Amino acid sequence: MKYLFLIFGLFVLFQLGFIWVLLGLGCLVIYGGLEFLMWLDKDDRKIREEKELIKKYSKRNRNKRNVETESEEERVLREKNEREELQRIKEENKIREQELEEERKKKEFWFGLDGLPTERELNKVFEKLGYKTKLTPIGGDEGIDHILDEEIVVQTKNQKRKTSRPDLQKFRGSMKDYKKGIFVSINGFTHTCEKFVQTSDRQIKLFDIDDVIEMSEGNKPEWNE
């Protein structure tokens, strides 16, 4: 009876050993296959890079030859076409800016913008009002989005909810030594905000969508000196 246990035990060990050998061989085959694919890809990438370099230098040389062989008449014509194209682009930009000026006078225009586009468009409104404007870097503004004439700081919010008192308190902290500030909230403010600015030691104006429209129509904010 005990020999049966011995034979069974040897059989089990043999079977397990055979399985581990198969697993090891399988891993080696997979590793070898991956190495081979990486080698092929490396060669292909090298060939692609060489082709790109050849294409790049061929184009450069071709352009160089074209410039060298360009006649005076061709040069004059090319420069004329370039000037006309530049003028066309300027005219298109001018027309587009005029269209945007009219769009900025509509509430739906501002309601349709997100945060960053609102800041950019509002900066153009401030420029039209005659301010020397500066957009602060994204993420490093501490709540300040615009600086006007180096003396007025502006924060802009275009969100679904109304701006609340804690937002104004943070804005006041970001003002530091600036005496004047404008908080623009397209969707307005909660009822506690007006009381906060009335008791603040800084001049802070609360501008909603109606005030933004007024500025877009050319009405510059007035301050107490």
Question: Could you characterize what this model shows?
Answer:
- The model is unreliable at 31-43 (pLDDT under 50).
- The protein is an alpha/beta fold and 225 residues long.
- Helix 5 links the parallel strand 3 (152-157) and strand 4.
- It contains 7 helices and 5 strands.
- Among the domains are: 70-103; 115-216, Trna Endonuclease, Chain: A, domain 1, CATH 3.40.1350.
- 64% of the residues lie in helices and 10% in strands.
- Strands 1-2-3-4-5 form a 5-stranded mixed β-sheet, with helices on both faces.
The CATH architecture of the domain at 115-216 is: 3-Layer(aba) Sandwich
Radius of gyration: 35 Å
Residue windows where pLDDT falls under 50 for at least 5 positions: 31-43
Q: Treating each run of at least 4 consecutive H or I residues as one helix, how many helices?
A: 7
Distance between the termini: 110 Å
Largest sheet: 5 strands, mixed
Structural class: alpha/beta
Given this structure, which CATH class of the domain at 115-216 is correct? Alpha Beta
Hey, roughly how much beta strand do the residues contain? 5-15%
Instruction: Report helical residue fraction.
Output: 55-70%
Which outline best applies?
extended
* Lateral strand order in the biggest sheet: 1-2-3-4-5
